[in-house]
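User: I'm putting together notes for a lab meeting next week and I want to include a structural view of one of the chains we've been expressing. I don't have a solved structure, so I'd like a prediction I can at least talk through. The sequence is below, exactly as it appears in our construct file.
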Amino acid sequence: MDTVVGSSTGSDTLSSQKMKAFARHVVTAVLAAMAMGVHAGAEPRVALTVRLYNTSGISAHELLAARDAIESTFHDSGLDLIIRQCGRGVQAAIDSCSESLKPLEMVVRIIDAPVLDSTVHPDACGVAYVVRETDRGWLATAYSDRVTSAAVRVGVDAGTLLGLVISHELGHLLLGSGYHAWSGVMRADWSEELLNHPREPWRFSALEAARMRSRQF
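Assistant: Thanks for the context. Below is the predicted structure for the 217-residue chain, given as structure tokens.
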């Protein structure tokens, strides 16, 4: 789900509904990428820091699985992902993250879905807040209770699914409001069959990776 601050609201759900056709955009983008010879390994890598707040208190095991999934989706993106576990607590692993947010930092909140909020789709497992003027954002939210329910229903690991949801919302912060692809982690249609038997890795495409890196400077 991606929320455009000051504008309209869209949603990403784990239902079997079909995503809208982006054929013209995809073909044009692919041709442009071929012309430019896009290759993640040929360009300088960009460090991207994610401040992760486990507000809903999911287990350390589930959080580790989520982090592994996030890192996997960004593996070939040319972005060096740095995940900081932020919050307040006695554990040594908790970072207070008290300093001001830097330009190449984003915040992800893991919370339970609000009970009464008409702006949130009832099937949405996450939301990204995107500023209309820049088509970028720095804050995303993942609803751990909905992710867990979906994982149980579909029969997949809840931590891994949570990581994929977070990666998808981070993608919206970097790629803009309403962006979806035909494949990979940015696809809109996450059917139960696809989650159980993925036909391809849950990652960002070379074109998406190049676009994300270019939007960081």
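A couple of points you could mention at the meeting. The two ends are 25 Å apart (CA to CA). The chain has one domain: 2-15+24-30+44-214.

User: Perfect, that's what I needed.
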